[in-house]
Each structure stands twice: as structure tokens, then as C-alpha cells.
Amino acid sequence: MEPIEQKSFVNTAVIIGVIFGVTYSIVNVISLTIGVNSGAVGVGSILFFCFMCCAFAILPGLLANRFYIHEIKTAVEIGKGALIGLTAGLIFGVVFGFFDNVVWRLFGVDTEALTLEYMLLMFENLNIDDPNMRDEMMSSTSGSRTFSLFLNVLVAGLLNVLSGMAGAAIFSKPYEDKEI
Amino acid sequence: MESFNVQGHHKSWFDRNGFPPWLIALVWVVLSFLLFQGIGSVVALLLIFYKEGAVNEQALVQNPEILLIGNSVGQILGLAVATLIIARLSALPFEYRSFLRLEAPKGTLKLTGFSVLLVIVVQPSIWLFSWLNQQFPLPESWIEMESIQLELLETLFMSGIPLWFMIFSIAVVPAVCEEIMFRGYVMRLLEKSSGVILAILLSGLIFGLFHLRITQLIPLSLIGMLLGWVTIKTGSLYPAVIMHFVHNGATVLAVHFYPQLLEVDTTDALPPWWLIIFSFVLTGYFIYLFSRITANQKESGYV
Fold first, then answer.
1. Interface of A with B in 49-68 (CB under 8 A)
2. Structural domain harbouring A92
3. C-alpha separations of A90 from A81, B68, B183, B257 in Å
4. Coil, helix or strand for A179?
5. For residues A128 and A124, what is the distance between their CA atoms, to the nearest angstrom?
6. Which of A94, A117, A90, A135 is nearest to A36 (CA)?
7. In a domain, A105, yes or no
8. Is B100 within 8 Å of B188 (Cβ atoms)?
9. How many domains does chain A have?
10. Residues pairing with B10 in the sheet
11. 3 state SS for A54-121
12. Neighbour-count burial of A113, counting CB atoms closer than 10 A to its CB (0-12 exposed, 13-18 middle, 19+ buried)
């Protein structure tokens, strides 16, 4: 049997990354659809989106550390926590990107068009009339899909390095006398 | 928590906390890029606002010297100073300078002379790789981004900015700041993780990617690898700084005295074949000489 101290963190990080990637993709599409169909896109819903986006983006690293530490019942160094966070974050970014660009299209949902529609509604509701400003904001949200996918994965990885470090520091506390 | 290594020496903060060096290197490349861009943009926008009373496209185009100042401040603070600070967490105080190779072992001056000759003779070969790079088909959006960068460069060179200021901003600042970051810090971290050869290759590739010029990725990466190789061979960062300065400075001087060079379409233009062959042969010869001279040189300090 594999000694518990040498158990790899990869499984935990991958499972958490996949679960969060899929969940966030579903929540994202549902929120966009509700916003576009109801027309109620204002400051409140934008704040909700920002909060949801941040929460989903940092949770994989934090929770992957929590489950890994709980499983091995040993404290981990924050450097290892960063590595666990990076793995979970990269998987989260890739899975979210895959769902956003491939899976939803199979169901006839164009997430890019949905996002643009949502933004147009936001401009209308916030009375942003300046066409230049609107064009600039729209162009900043569109662009090469490959590049934006790469950016999503990179940002998710980096954010989860930080949340992974935090996770290792927080969840290692009860096991500090037993460190790898 | 154990704070000593196997030889009984203290460990750096990153080592004590179990950070893999390659992870620090990759995260630091991205963070320092963001710092550099963020600081540079804020400084440039504030200066333009102070001078013009508003920030718009016209004000940006009319003040290329301010954009250069922003870029230089961004590099100095975001790349060099920030790297020098974060490197304190990777090395102990007594090994800090040798960790970053901020020292000049015996013979560095002579090797720096060789390095300068090397970077001069390699230019036609680099031109060939630049031409090769541009033969690859690229997405329209990347080509557009590239042409915007070239337009900005053209505006800079045509705007009558004093030569000393151009040399300082385009040759001195990047040579010092980028070398501290890439060859000083990032390559050393990659070396700890993956050994010397992979460190040279990876740090060169990251150097190429860092410039966000996809049509110049191959030549920039090769220059980065050459600078890395020279740094490893000499055990000092200074020859690479001088090489980088000569490379960038020569470009500034060439375009300053021959502005028609900006019009040359490098997609079609290639240097004469005899020059390319001459460059390859001389580069090979210099690399051989360099290797022979440095063969018995042992790097001191950081292990």
C-alpha cells in the first residue's frame, strides 16, 4: 500500500478543478440567459457576476488543499499548496474553456453571442451612449478565442497559486505537528 | 520547520516553504510583466494628463517621449527593482550576489569583449531567422497587433526625440532590467529545477514570448538563449548586459542614421547569402573560442 505521506495531490486537484470548471460554466450560462431574457441587467447583477466570477476562480485552489490535507491528515508547506492550487486552477481553466467553446455549442448555445447580448443590455440599462466607449468595451471582451482561452487558463492558474498558498496555510493548522 | 539544508546552511524563504523553483520562475514572469505594464501605463497616463489636461488617443500620439518614460519607469520598477526584492526570498544574504550572478570573476572583461564580437557577428544569422519566422502564416489579429507596434516604433523614431534619450530608453534600460530578470533570476531558478541546458532553452523561449512579438519569436528566443549561454559560461551577468545593450543600441543608431530602414519589408528582404554563411561560420568559431576560454573557469559563490 502507498504510504499516506507520499500520496499524490494530482487526483484531488484534478477532481476539484473539473467539478468547479463544469459548475462555473453551467452557472455562467444560466446567469447570462436569465439576465438577457429578463432584461434586468443593472449594477446589482454585474456585482453578482463579479462576485461569482471571483469566488469560482479562487475556490479550486483553496478547496483542493482542504481536501488533500484532510485526506493525508498532515500539514503541507505553502509551496506545495501553491503547486496544488496551480494544478487545480489550470484544470479549472481548461475545463471551463472546453465547456464554453465546445460543449455548449453542441447544445446550440453560443456563449460568446450570449455574453455580447448581455453587455449590450448592460450598456442600455446604464445609459452608456458614447459609441466609441461602447466599441472599446466590446472589443476588449471579444478577440481571438485561442488567445482568450489561453488568458483564462493562465489567470485561473495564477489566482489559484495564491488561493492554494492560503489554503495550505489555513487548513494545515490542525496538523502542524505532522508536516511533510 | 526545518530551516537548514543538508550541508547545515540556512535555507532561503522559498526553499524553507517548499516552493518548486520552476513555479516561482513562471509565476514571477507573469507577475513582473503585469507590474511592468501596470506601472508603465499609470506613469505615462499621469504624465500625459499633467501635460495635456486630458488623456485621449491624440494626446498619446503627440507625446511619444512620455510613453518612453512610462516604459522605462515600468521596466526599472516592475522588472529590475521588483526582481531584486523578490530574489531576497530565493537566496540568503551572503549568497545573494552570486545567486543573481552580479559579480565579475577574473577574466570577465576579456570575455565581455568576446561577447560583444559574438553579438555583432550573429546579426545576419538572426536576420535569417527573423525572415524564416515571418514565413509562418499567422492569424489576422496578430498581424494587426504587430503592425500597430511597428507604427508606434516608427512614430517614436520620427518624432525627433534626442538620440541619447532613445539610447537610454531602448538600449540601457532594457539591457539592465531584462537581464536582471531573465538571466539573473528566472534562469537561475530554472537551473535549480531542470539543469543548465533546459534553463538556457526555457529562459530564452520565455524571453521571446515576453516581447509579445509573434513574428519575431524565433530570433528573440535565440538571442535570449545566446545571452543565457554566455551568462552561464562567464558566471557573470555583466557580459549579457553589455551584449543586450550593443544589440539594442546598434538598432537605435542604425534607424536614427538610416531612417529608410524602417521601410524595409523584412518579409521579403534577406541579407546576401555570403553574409549569412560568413555569420554562421564566425558565430560557430566564436562560440568554440568562448567554450575553450571558459572551459577551466569554475563558477564561485552560489551553489
1. none
2. 8-175
3. 14, 35, 27, 48
4. strand
5. 6
6. A117
7. yes
8. yes
9. 1
10. B4
11. HHHHHHHHHHHHHHHHHHHCCECCHHHHHHHHHHHHHHHHHHHHHHHHHHHHHCCCCHHHHHHHHHHH
12. exposed
Residue A48 pLDDT level (bands cut at 50, 70, 90): confident
Is B1 in Cβ contact with A82 (below 8 Å)? no
Distance between CA B132 and CA B139 in Å, rounded? 17
Can you give the C-alpha Rg of chain A in angstroms? 19
Three-state DSSP class for residue B160:
coil
Residue type, B78: G
Q: Which of A86, A146, A147 sits opposite B23 (nearest CB)?
A: A86
Instruction: Confirm or reject contact between B303 and chain A (CB < 8 A).
Output: no
**A86:B1 CB<8 A:** no
Q: Is residue A180 part of a domain?
A: no
pLDDT single digits (tens) B20-56: 999 999 999 999 999 999 999 999 999 999 988 888 7
More confident of the two residues A131 and B289: B289
Is A25 contained in some domain?
yes
**Beta-ladder partners of B4:** B10
Measured CA to CA, the distance from residue B32 to residue B81 in angstroms comes to: 10
Distance (Å, whole) CA B63 – CA B46:
12
pLDDT-derived band at A136, boundaries 50, 70, 90 = low
Closest Cβ–Cβ partner in A77, A78, A144 for B139: A144
Indicate yes or no: pTM above 0.90. Answer: no
Q: A79 and B27 in contact by Cβ < 8 A?
A: no
Within a domain: A3:
no
Number of H helices, E strands in chain B: 16, 0
Kindly report, residue by residue over A68-101, the tens digit of the pLDDT: 999 999 999 999 999 999 999 999 999 999 998 8
Residues 6+ apart with CB under 8 A from A80: A9, A168, A180, B18
Q: Which residues in chain A are contacts of B141 at CB distance < 8 A?
A: 143-144, 147
All residues at 6 or more sequence positions from A113 whose CB lies less than 8 Å from its CB, including other chains: none
Comparing CA positions, the residue from A64, A74, A87 lying closest to residue A3 is A74
Report the distance separating Cα A126 and Cα B270, nearest Å.
54
Q: Measured between alpha carbons, how far is A40 from A173 in angstroms, rounded to an integer?
A: 44
